[in-house]
Amino acid sequence: MTDSRLLSPSPASLSEAARLLGEGKLVAFPTETVYGLGADATNDQAVAAIFAAKDRPAFNPLIVHIPDLAAAEALVEFDTRASTLAARLWPGPLTLVLKRRRDCPVSLLASAGLETLAVRIPAHELAHTLLETVGCPIAAPSANRSEEVSPTRATHVLQSLGGRIDAVLDGGPCQVGLESTVLDLSGPMATLLRPGGVPAEDIEAVTGPLAEAGKDAPPKSPGLLSRHYAPRTPLRMNARTPAEGEALLAFGPDTSADTTRNLSPDGDLTEAAANLFAVLRELDEGGFTGIAVRPIPEDGLGRAINDRLRRAAGRR
Ligand code: AMP
Ligand code: MG
Q: For labelling, which of 121, 153, 192, 258 has a CA lying 20 to 30 Å from the CA of 217?
C-alpha cells in the first residue's frame, strides 16, 4: 500500500468509505470515543489485516460496531440485563461482551477464538451513517499502532498508520476521547473488564454490584470468563512429523502426506491468521490425540500466531 487517503465527511466520501470496507479494505473512522480502525468483521482476511496494520504481537478480541439493536441481536444472544442496558445506554461508549449466536457471521478471529463477542453501537452521526451504509458489522480497535496512544483526530491516525491502511474518514476531534466501558455479560455475573466512557454506577443501577475481572470472578468456570481461547487437545510447536494419532498443522508449501490442514499453502501470514482459530477448532473437534504444528516464522503476524500457539501449548 502506498498512501492512505484522507476522506472528508461528504456523502460521496462516505459511500467511498463504505465501498472500500465492503471490499475488505481498512478504513479508519471517528466514533465518540476514539478513531477506530475498521474492517468488515465477517471477512477473516480483512480482520487479519487489522492486526497486521496495528503490528499487534498478540490476538486480542476486537469490538464489533453495529448501527442498531437489530444488527446486534443478529450476532449475539441478549438476556434481560443486556436488553435493559442496551435500551438505556446505547448508542454510547458501552461495549457488551455476549455469547455469539450459533449463526453469528463474524470472523472467529474478531473473537480471538472465544465463544463471546464484544459489540457496541457508537453515538456518532458519521459512524452511524457509515455503519448503515456498509450494512455489515465492522470490527474496529483503536486506530493506532500497538503500544501507541489512541487517536482522537484524523491526523493522529495518519501519523500512526499512514501508508498501512486504505483511508481515514475525517470527522474532526472525538468528543469523549476515552475508550468504551467493556462489560462482560456472557456469564451469570456482570463483570467490568475495562472502565471507560460509561460510569460503572450507571451500569450497576441495572445489574447490581459489578464483579471486577480477575478479582471477584469465580475461579475458572469453564469458558466463562477466560479471555483466551485454547484447544483442549494437547498442542506442540515446531514439529516435523506427527506422532501416531496426532493431526499435523502445516504452514507454507508442503507436500507431506501427513498434513491434516495447512494454515496457508502460499506461506502468507495474513491468510494463516485469518484461518487460525477456525482450523484450531476444527482440529480440536477431530478426535486427534494431539496437534503438531510445523514452524511458523516469527515475523509480522507470525508473532501473534506463535503467541497464541505458545499459550495453547503451555496450557497443559
Ligand atoms: P479495543 O478494541 O482496543 O478498544 O479493546 C477492546 C477491549 O475489549 C479489550 O480490552 C479486549 O480485551 C476487550 N474484549 C473485546 N472482546 C472481548 C471478549 N469477547 N471477551 C473479553 N474481552 C473482550
Ligand atoms: Mg487501543
A: 121
114 lines ligand 1 (CB under 6 A): yes
- Residue 109, pLDDT score: 97
Q: How confident is the model at residue 41 (pLDDT cuts 50, 70, 90)?
A: very high
pLDDT tens-digit series, residues 201-232: 999 999 999 998 766 554 434 333 455 788 99
204 and 100, same domain (yes or no): yes
Residues 298, 202 share a domain: no
**CATH number where 275 lies:** 3.40.50.11030
Cell of 22: 465492503
Q: How confident is the model over 145-168, as pLDDT tens digits? A: 998 989 999 999 999 999 999 999
Q: Are residues 194 and 303 in the same domain?
A: no
Query: Is 106 within a domain?
Result: yes
Q: Is residue 230 part of a domain?
A: no
Find, among 202, 159, 165, the residue nearest to 183 by Cα.
202
Question: Which ligand neighbours the alpha carbon of 141 most closely?
Answer: 1
| Mean pLDDT, the chain, whole residue set | 93
Number of CB atoms found within 10 A of residue 297's CB: 15
The angle at the Cα of 48, spanning 47 to 53, to the nearest 5 degrees, equals 100
Determine the structural domain holding residue 195 and report its residue range.
5-212
Instruction: Give distance in angstroms: CA of 177 to centre of ligand 2.
Output: 12
Examine the domain organization and report whether 207 and 246 are in the same domain.
no
Of all atoms in ligand 1, which is nearest to the CA of residue 114? 19
> Which of 130, 24, 136, 23 minimizes the C-alpha distance to 74?
136
Mutate to test the pocket of ligand 1, among 62, 179, 224 (most ligand atoms within 8 A of CB): 62
Biggest distance spanned by C-alpha atoms of the chain: 61
155, 21: one domain: yes
- Contact present, 165 and 27 (Cβ < 8 Å): yes
Same domain, residue pair 137 and 261: no
Average pLDDT over residues 269-288: 95
Percent of the chain with pLDDT over 90: 87
Q: What is the pLDDT of residue 230?
A: 85
- Cβ(316) – ligand 1 distance below 6 Å: no
Would residue 278 count as lying in a domain? yes
